[in-house]
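Minutes, methods subgroup
Present: GH (chair), OT, SY

1. OT presented the first of two proteins processed in the latest run. Sequence and structure tokens recorded below as shown on screen.
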Amino acid sequence: MLDIETDYQRPMSETRPEPVGEIREVEVEGKKFKIGVSLHKDLEVLLKETLSHNIDPFAWSVVDMPDIDPDFFYHHLTIDVRMKLVV
């Protein structure tokens, strides 16, 4: 029997949250974010200001994380090269 909390073979779509409504892309300091279309304009302005003031903590790519050891976040598959490919 599989433990649901530790079954990493399940598709990611089963565990990822989905937007409640329509979304659109906005740009803050050259970075793209997705927000709800129904977000009130005043809240959108506040959200953009908050993101702009706190843009530094976000990591957008590996380049933005120079002090993190690549072995920590790279995924390696354990593949026996002697096995035949199954198509």
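2. SY then presented the second protein from the same run.
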Amino acid sequence: MRYDVRGIASAAAWLPVLRRFLSLATTGRVPMSLRPPDRRARRLTLLLRAGDALRAGATQREIAERLLSKDAAEPRWRTEAPDLRGRAQRLAIGARHLAAGGWRRLLR
């Protein structure tokens, strides 16, 4: 293995990678504490749950209430929490997209 360091800034960016490699080389595994977090995990979890809810016949309001906020249970949730309505709509659209084959993009 060869590692070229060209200044402190370039070394700092590669330190986490080097730590993971050293752990793998010495222990045969990479501990969870050294793995980078998947920034998409929460969103993908919500999309999968929304997709399951849609297939079970849930409305966007029910999805918003159960997955996003109890505020969606309020009678005037659409007008009093338009951001919540928009988030529920985006979840429904994203879930339908994943079900229609968009999941393949995740594998790239």
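Chair's summary of item 2: The chain has a mean pLDDT of 85.
Next meeting: continue with the remaining queue.
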